[in-house]
Write a structure and sequence with these properties.
Elements: E1 5-8, E2 61-69, E3 72-81, E4 84-94, E5 100-106, H1 117-124, E6 128-131, E7 147-149, E8 152-155, E9 165-169, E10 174-177, E11 180-186, E12 192-198, E13 217-220, E14 239-244, E15 247-252, E16 266-270, H2 273-281, E17 289-295, E18 300-305, E19 309-312, E20 315-316, E21 332-337, E22 343-350, H3 361-370, E23 375-379, E24 387-389, E25 398-401, E26 414-420, E27 427-433, E28 437-439, E29 443-445, E30 447-452, E31 457-458, E32 465-468, E33 473-476, E34 479-482, E35 486-493, E36 498-506, E37 511-518, E38 528-537, E39 542-545, E40 551-555, E41 558-561, E42 566-571, E43 577-584, E44 587-594, E45 600-604, E46 609-612, E47 615-618, E48 624-626, E49 629-633, H4 634-641, E50 644-648, E51 653-658, E52 661-666, E53 671-674, E54 677-680, E55 686-688, E56 691-695, H5 696-702, E57 706-710, E58 715-719, H6 721-724
Parallel strand pairs: 12-13, 28-36
Antiparallel strand pairs: 1-17, 2-3, 3-4, 4-22, 5-26, 6-24, 6-26, 7-8, 9-10, 9-18, 11-12, 11-17, 13-16, 14-15, 14-16, 19-20, 19-23, 21-22, 21-23, 24-25, 27-30, 29-34, 30-31, 32-35, 33-34, 35-36, 37-38, 38-39, 38-42, 40-43, 41-42, 43-44, 45-46, 45-58, 46-47, 48-49, 49-56, 50-51, 51-52, 52-53, ...
Length: 726
C-alpha cells in the first residue's frame, strides 16, 4: 500500500474527505451530561507539566532480567521515589528479529466483548501481553484510537486533540504519531454524506463539543460484536442499512437491527439528520458506495491507540492532554520506541498494591527517559494496567504486574500481544525452581524447566531429572521429601546441563515459634476443622508448616487429628474448652479451643494488663511464677469474675465467694479451704506490694473454673463454664 490507505467498496472514484473534528469539549449548559474524559476513558493518566512535583532522583534498581523468547527481554525494576516504592516491568522487543511477531487482540475476538489480559494471552498463546488503548467504560466497549490489525483498519481514530498512536510498519519499524480518519457514503444518484468513524461507540467530540453520533454516519463491520451501535440518551431513533457486496440487503429505519454485524457484512448507522439521509437515499437492492481512509500514509502492519506523548526525542515533554481526572498516583502502561524505530519498549508500572505505590505521569515520563526511550505514548492505566509474560522455560504465563488494590484483573477492550514464530530448536539451558526451605518430613514438588536456542520452552519430560547428593532426603520424580535437618542441594540434570538449587531443612532449634490456627470455630459433635501452623524462624523469616511434619494431639475433649491437620470432634459432653497440641523436632505449641460462648479472663506473666473477653483492665501487680506455680492478685481476678471478696485482717484470710463455692485463703498457710474442705498447697498465698497474691490453679479449681496456660506467649486463660452455660 502506498499513499493514503484507501478502502473503496464500489467503482466510484469520488472521494470526499470529511473535516476532522475531535473529541471531548466543555459541558454545554443545555445538557446535564458531563463532557469529561473521566466518563470516557478507563485508567488514570494526566499531568499539567513535564516536571513531576517531588520527583526523586534515585536510580532504578534492576531486580532481574531474562529473555522470554528470541528477540524479547524482560527486566523488572524497583524505584524508590518520593511518592513511595515503585515496581515496574519492561519488555524490550527487537523488531528486526525474524521470530518476533506482535498483534492486537480485541477482547474476546470482537469489540464490545471485553476480556482480561490473562485470558487474551492464554487464548492466543502469547509469550507476553499488556493492556492497550483507552475506552469508554460506560458504553459498548471499543478503543478510542486507531486500531489496525494485520494491515486492516479495525477501528478509526476518535476525534481528539493531542493524542498519539503506536504503529508498526511492514518493514518492522515503529512510529508514534497522531492519526486521523475520513470517509463517505453515497448512492448512484449523487446523494452523499461524510462518514464519522468505523466501529466507534458514543463519545463527545473535543473541539466542537458535539455528540459523536447525533446527526452523523458510522460504519460497523463484523469485528463489532454488540447488538447495538452508538446509542445513548442523546441520540434519537437510528436508521441502519445492512450491506453486503456493495448492495443494501436489508433496512431497519425504526431503531436499527437488534443483532451483531453478520460475517462479511457492514452496517451503516445514522442518527438524526444522518438517519434521514439513509431513509431518503436508499432502498433494499440499491448499490451503495463506501470509502474511507486513515493517515499517516504508511504500510501499517498494526496500529494501537494511545493518548498523550510522554517522551519526545529522548526528553520529557508536557503531557499533551489537560484532563485532571486522569492524574494522580496510579498504575501506568506505556509504549516507547528507539530513535531508529527498531526497538519497542512496553512498560507497566504496578500501582496501589502492597508492593508498589504507583506513579504520576510526570514520573512515568522520567522513568522512560531513564530507560533510554526516544519517544513514548501513554496507554490505558489505572485499573486496566496488567502485564503477563511467560517466564524463561515455562509454558504457562504469569502476571508480573498485578491489578490495583490487589484485586481482580479488569476486562479491557484489547491487548497488545507478543508471539514467537521460531521453530523448535536444540536445548540451550535448564533451570530448577521451588521451595528453598523445608521441614523434616515435608514433600515439595520442584519445577524443572528447559528452553531452546530461541528461549522457548522445551518439554522437560525425558530431558531433565532431579537429584540430591547430600543424603538429606529422598526423590520421587520431581518431588523431594526432607528426611533430616541440614543444608542440601537439589540438582536438575540433563545430558548437557546442570542447574543447582540450595535448600535448607530446618530443625526445631532453627525455629523461634510456631503458631496454630483453625479455619472455623463452630464446634459440634462430628464436625471437622482444618488446623494450620505458621513458623517464625530465628533468622526472622516465616513459613507455613506442612501439617504432615507435625505430631498432633488433643487434650480436654474427645477428638482426633489426622496427618493433614484435620481435626474431627467426636464428643463435647460436659466440655467447654479443649486444647490441640502440635510438636516438631522437640518444639511444642498449643491452641485453646472454646466450645461454648463463655466469658474468659486472660492474663500474661509479668504483664499488668488483664483482659475480660476483648476489654482491657490494668492491674497494679502483675502475675508471676513462684515455685513453678502461677500466682495472681486475687482482688482483680475476683472483680473480673464478678466474685465477692472479703478480707479479714486479724486472721490474714481472704474469702472468695463465687456461684456456690467459697474459698478461704490464709496468707502464708500451706493449705486453703474449699467449702470447708482442706486443699494442700505447695505455694502459699502471699502479700506482694500490698496485694494478696494467690496460687491460681488451686483457687480456680476450688471455684469451678478452668485454667489454660500457653507457653508460647506465657498467657493464662480462665474460663467460666458455669456462669454462661445456664
Amino acid at each position: 500500500m502506498c499513499g493514503i490507505i484507501k478502502y473503496i467498496f464500489d467503482t466510484g472514484e469520488e472521494k470526499i474527505m470529511g473535516k476532522l473534528i475531535g473529541y471531548m469539549a466543555k459541558q454545554k449548559a443545555k445538557t446535564a451530561m458531563k463532557h469529561t474524559i473521566s466518563a470516557i476513558l478507563a485508567g488514570a493518566m494526566i499531568i499539567s507539566s513535564c516536571i513531576p512535583a517531588g520527583a526523586a532522583t534515585n536510580e532504578l534498581k534492576q531486580i532481574n532480567t531474562s529473555p522470554i523468547t528470541s528477540g524479547v527481554v524482560q527486566t523488572n525494576y524497583t524505584w524508590d521515589i518520593a511518592d513511595g516504592m515503585v515496581k515496574a516491568s519492561v519488555l524490550e522487543i527487537d523488531l528486526t528479529n525474524p521470530y518476533v511477531k506482535l498483534d492486537i487482540v480485541p477482547g474476546q475476538g470482537q469489540f464490545t466483548k471485553r476480556a482480561t489480559v490473562s485470558a487474551m494471552a492464554n487464548a492466543t498463546n502469547a509469550v507476553a501481553m499488556i493492556n492497550g488503548d483507552f475506552y469508554n467504560t460506560r458504553a459498548e466497549g471499543a478503543p478510542i484510537g486507531t486500531t489496525v490489525i494485520e494491515g486492516q483498519l479495525a477501528s478509526s481514530q476518535s476525534y481528539l486533540n493531542g493524542v498519539y498512536c503506536l504503529g508498526i510498519t511492514d518493514d518492522a519499524t515503529a512510529y508514534i504519531e497522531p492519526f486521523s480518519f475520513s470517509g463517505y457514503v453515497s448512492n448512484n444518484y449523487g446523494a452523499i454524506m461524510n462518514l464519522s468513524g468505523l466501529n466507534k461507540t458514543v463519545y463527545w467530540e473535543e473541539t466542537t463539543g458535539q455528540h459523536s453520533h447525533l446527526n452523523k454516519l458510522h460504519l460497523y463491520n463484523d469485528l463489532w460484536g454488540g447488538t447495538t451501535r452508538g446509542i445513548d440518551s442523546y441520540t434519537g431513533v437510528p436508521a441502519e442499512l445492512l450491506v453486503k457486496d456493495n448492495k443494501v440487503v436489508d433496512i431497519a429505519f425504526d431503531g436499527g437491527f437488534d443483532m451483531p454485524v453478520p460475517e462479511g457484512c457492514y452496517i451503516v448507522h445514522g442518527d438524526g439528520t444522518a438517519a434521514d439521509f439513509l431513509k431518503e437515499s436508499f432502498v433494499i437492492g440499491d448499490t451503495i458506495h463506501i470509502a474511507y481512509s486513515y493517515e499517516p500514509a504508511k504500510d501499517w502492519q498494526l496500529v494501537i491507540g494511545g493518548h498523550g506523548l510522554l517522551v519526545d526525542q529522548g526528553q520529557m515533554v508536557p503531557y499533551t492532554k489537560d484532563l485532571s481526572a486522569l492524574g494522580g498516583i496510579r498504575a501506568r502502561t506505556a509504549a516507547g520506541i528507539s530513535q531508529d524505530g527498531k526497538t519497542l519498549y512496553l512498560i507497566a508500572v504496578e500501582g496501589r498494591t502492597a508492593e508498589s505505590k504507583g506513579i504520576t505521569l510526570g514520573n512515568l515520563s522520567l522513568l522512560l527517559t531513564k530507560l533510554g526511550v526516544w519517544k513514548a505514548v501513554n496507554l490505558d492505566g489505572g485499573g486496566s494496567t496488567t502485564m503477563v509474560s511467560r517466564p524463561l522455560g515455562e509454558i504457562e504465563r504469569v502476571r508480573v504486574i498485578h491489578p490495583e488494590n490487589n484485586g481482580m484483573e479488569r476486562s479491557v477492550v484489547e491487548g497488545l500481544g507478543i508471539y514467537s514464530t521460531a521453530p523448535q530448536g536444540r536445548v540451550q539451558g535448564i533451570s530448577i525452581g521451588g521451595s528453598q526451605t523445608l521441614f523434616i518430613g515435608e514433600t515439595a514438588e520442584y519445577k524443572l524447566r528447559a528452553y531452546d536456542q530461541y528461549y522457548n520452552p522445551v518439554d522437560p519430560a525425558n530431558t531433565i531429572r532431579l537429584t540430591e547428593s547430600t543424603g538429606h532426603g529422598t526423590i520421587s520424580g520431581n518431588a523431594f521429601t526432607a528426611v533430616e535437618a541440614g543444608d542440601a542441594v537439589l540438582y536438575a540434570v540433563s545430558n548437557t546441563y546442570t542447574a543447582a538449587l540450595p535448600i535448607r531443612i530446618v530443625s526445631g532449634a532453627d525455629i523461634e515459634s510456631i503458631t496454630l490456627d483453625i479455619n472455623q470455630r463452630d464446634f459440634t459433635e462430628g464436625s471437622t476443622h482444618q488446623l494450620s501452623a505458621y513458623a517464625i524462624l530465628k533468622d526472622g523469616t516465616g513459613k507455613q508448616v506442612a501439617p504432615e511434619t507435625l505430631t498432633w494431639s488433643v487434650e480436654g475433649f474427645d477428638g482426633t487429628i489426622d496427618e493433614t491437620g484435620k481435626l474431627t470432634v467426636h464428643s463435647l459432653e460436659n466440655t467447654y474448652t479443649g486444647t490441640v497440641k502440635a510438636s516438631y523436632d522437640g518444639l511444642e505449641t498449643s491452641l485453646t479451643l472454646k466450645f461454648a460462648d463463655l466469658e474468659t479472663v486472660k492474663l500474661t506473666i509479668d504483664s499488668t494488663t488483664l483482659w475480660i473477653d476483648d476489654k482491657a483492665l490494668e492491674m497494679d501487680v502483675a502475675p508471676s511464677i513462684v515455685n513453678n506455680r502461677t500466682i495472681v492478685p486475687v482482688t482483680f481476678i475476683a472483680d473480673a469474675l464478678n466474685a465477692q471478696v472479703e478480707w479479714d485482717g486479724v486472721l490474714r484470710t481472704a474469702y472468695v465467694a463465687y456461684n456456690d463455692s467459697l474459698v478461704e485463703i490464709v496468707i502464708d498457710a500451706p493449705e486453703l479451704y474449699v467449702n470447708g474442705e482442706v486443699v494442700a498447697l505447695d505455694t502459699p498465698a502471699a502479700i506482694v506490694n500490698g496485694r494478696t497474691m494467690v496460687p491460681l490453679s488451686a483457687v480456680a479449681g476450688g471455684l469451678g473454673l478452668e485454667v489454660f496456660y500457653d507457653a508460647a506467649d506465657r498467657s493464662i486463660t480462665i474460663i467460666q463454664p458455669e456462669l454462661n452455660a445456664e
